[in-house]
Amino acid sequence: MKSKLEEAREIINEVDKEMISLFIKRMAAIRMVAEYKSENNIAIVDNKREEVVKEKNLELLSNKQLEKYYLVFLEGVLNSSKTYQKDFLDQRKK
Asked: Which of 2, 74, 80, 90 has its CA 20 to 30 A from that of 53?
């Protein structure tokens, strides 16, 4: 019989696997955003959009006790998105 720790780690591994697939899908969309911004001379950083994303996603979060942790997670996602856009556009300039 599995311990609670082993069970929890299996769940985490399954979730991580799903998150990788979703991450790849999200980054493909971020690349499309970067291309659009480049073609239309729009800045990478859009603070208003980031606030909308945070508010919209927090509304979807059913467990409000996790709100501050989700915001930390989401900040990481938004930061990696901006970094990817910047790197992608820098490479296009070369």
From this structure: 90
